[in-house]
Design brief:
elongated; transmembrane; GT117_domain-containing; two-stranded parallel ribbon; 1% strand; 2 strands; TMEM260-like; mainly alpha; membrane; transmembrane helix; disordered N terminus
């Protein structure tokens, strides 16, 4: 009766259920001599430790994956935040919030190691060394210097410690887990969503013996792990579930990719328990059908892993991707000595910063990020640029529709459109120039990247061209894109072509459900109805 009660208590612990059943199963077979066959009630079982340090299979798999990664990593910086993260690692600087102090400290050691490779390549190899999967999502972030690869390592480490604690009940794993929880928080803040259930589980298993001494010990280890973050106390903390709160539209490719990055930790949980299930299947095959069946299962598992790698190799192989550093060099190289450079795009800013900070390329140039100059704290940074006289504390951009989140690289066009409309007599040449980049975006970007503002503003540009009392000179070059009003018989009647295009894009705009909330919807819909022939 007592044995049955003990077993029932054990199976209520989900992390121990698999381990207990595995030991019971093995203790009936030929594997009595293995550590996993030790009776669960014996003193040895309480201190049984999981170890991968001497596991040849783990070393073989890890080496194989790292070998593939090392041949597919970026030779220099990738896009996104990679350039900035490596740049700040080169001089122990501060990355964008929350700062990523642990990543910068570790990569500071890595990028300064001897070797002919670029500093970015060394940082990319560090990311590759922290991952071990051939799935396209994991692979993408394992071959470039990004915080997500290190975050995956912490997630896997915490799962390993959780299983070790569930297996042995040793306070050693609980203390080490508390330290790793704190250390992981110094790298990527979203790991807290991974840590909360683990902490609650450990505290629940010790609920009957938990006291202030134990809690204080766990807190101490956690704080020690947080020390890199404590040193960088000025780093801000993002909202934990910021994507859920921001409710960004996943129909846009870029935003969908941003969300995908945070699927990696849930995938790790799935893969770990998938491995546990696979082990159980192979153990059963060994007992019921012999070594041949188990061997076939192993072969199929290896084949699946190799097939996964071959399937996604075209996505993961970025070993020849030099376009980002080459692009930045092409921007900086022709500039005159000691030039002042203003940039307003992350790809330009991060790539230029890496070249200057890590490779010493064009250190004479002063590069300023216009986006950063809009914040109030920029007033405290004026002293860093003694040769520059700033007209104010910070940059205040013009208030136009181009600041709308959904507009893409159309700031100048929308600003000119706004200024032209404000004038008492809009300049039709300006209006035509405004329409060109809007047309380019509409024709060459996928439909999911279109926005309400893009369609409305393009129609607005043509509307003011039509309303203007001025005319384009017949001798001038065609001010409109070739496709605008292409079926109008006389292509020199530019206002007829502008009218045709205005009605075309505004018809698409009023068909959008979200357009009805716009204050100008009724007026534009009325114009379209008046000029649209009835059938």
């Amino acid at each position: 009766m007592g044995t049955k009660r003990n077993f029932e208590l054990r199976v209520k612990d989900p992390c121990q259920l698999y381990l207990v059943m595995q030991r019971r199963r093995k203790s009936k077979g030929k594997e009595q001599q293995l550590p996993s066959a030790i009776e669960e009630d014996s003193p040895q079982a309480k201190h049984w430790k999981v170890s991968v340090a001497a596991d040849p299979v783990m070393w073989l798999v890890g080496s194989a994956v790292l070998g593939v990664y090392s041949q597919t990593i970026y030779p220099s910086i990738a896009g996104g935040d990679s350039g900035e993260l490596v740049a700040e690692s080169c001089h122990l600087g501060v990355s964008h919030p929350p700062g990523y102090p642990l990543f910068n400290m570790l990569n500071y050691l890595v990028v300064n190691m001897p070797g002919a490779q670029t500093k970015a390549w060394k940082a990319n190899l560090f990311s590759a060394g922290t991952n071990c999967m051939w799935t396209p999502l994991i692979w993408t972030y394992a071959i470039s210097a990004e915080v997500f690869a290190l975050n995956n390592l912490f997630a896997a480490w915490l799962l390993f410690l959780l299983l070790s604690y569930a297996q042995s009940g040793s306070v050693y794993y609980a203390n080490l887990g508390a330290f790793v929880c704190g250390l992981a928080m110094c790298n990527q803040h979203t790991i807290v969503l991974f840590e909360i259930p683990i902490v609650l589980y450990v505290l629940w298993t010790q609920r009957r013996s938990l006291g202030m001494k134990t809690l204080s010990t766990y807190a101490l280890y956690f704080v020690v792990g947080l020390l890199p973050l404590a040193v960088a106390f000025m780093y801000t903390f993002y909202l934990i579930v910021f994507h859920a709160l921001s409710n960004m539209p996943l129909t846009e490719g870029l935003l969908y990719g941003v969300h995908m990055r945070f699927w990696q930790q849930p995938n790790i949980i799935l893969f770990v328990w998938g491995g546990v299930g696979l082990d159980a299947v192979l153990q059963r095959a060994w007992r019921t059908s012999g070594a041949a069946a188990a061997g076939l299962g192993v072969v199929l598992s290896v084949a699946a892993m190799v097939g996964q790698g071959m399937t996604w190799q075209h996505v993961g192989n970025q070993s020849h991707a030099w376009f980002i550093p080459n692009y930045a060099k092409a921007l900086l190289d022709p500039l005159p000595p000691h030039a002042l450079v203003f940039v307003n795009y992350d790809l330009q800013w991060t790539a230029m910063r890496y070249l200057q900070r890590c490779e010493g390329f064009r250190p004479d140039l002063t590069v300023l990020n216009l986006s950063m100059m809009t914040y109030k704290w920029f007033a405290t940074k004026h002293a860093l640029y003694p040769s520059i006289v700033f007209p104010g504390d910070r940059l205040v951009p013009a208030s136009t529709n181009a600041r709308d989140f959904h507009m893409k690289k159309l700031g100048a066009a929308t600003y000119l459109l706004d200024e032209a409309i404000k004038s008492s007599r809009p300049n039709i040449t300006w209006l035509a120039e405004c329409a060109r980049p809007l047309e380019h975006s509409l024709r060459h970007e996928p439909r999911q990247f279109w926005s309400d503002s893009l369609l409305k503003n393009l129609g607005l540009a043509y509307a003011y061209i039509v309303r203007s009392p001025d005319e384009f000179a017949p001798t001038d070059a065609d001010p409109l894109e070739p496709h605008v009003g292409h079926h109008v018989p006389d292509q020199t009647k530019y206002k007829d072509r502008a009218t045709d295009r205005m009605l075309q894009v505004w018809r698409e705009w009023i068909a959008l459900p979200s357009a009805r909330a716009d204050p100008g919807y009724d007026a534009i819909a009325d114009i379209v109805r008046k000029f649209t022939p009835t059938t």
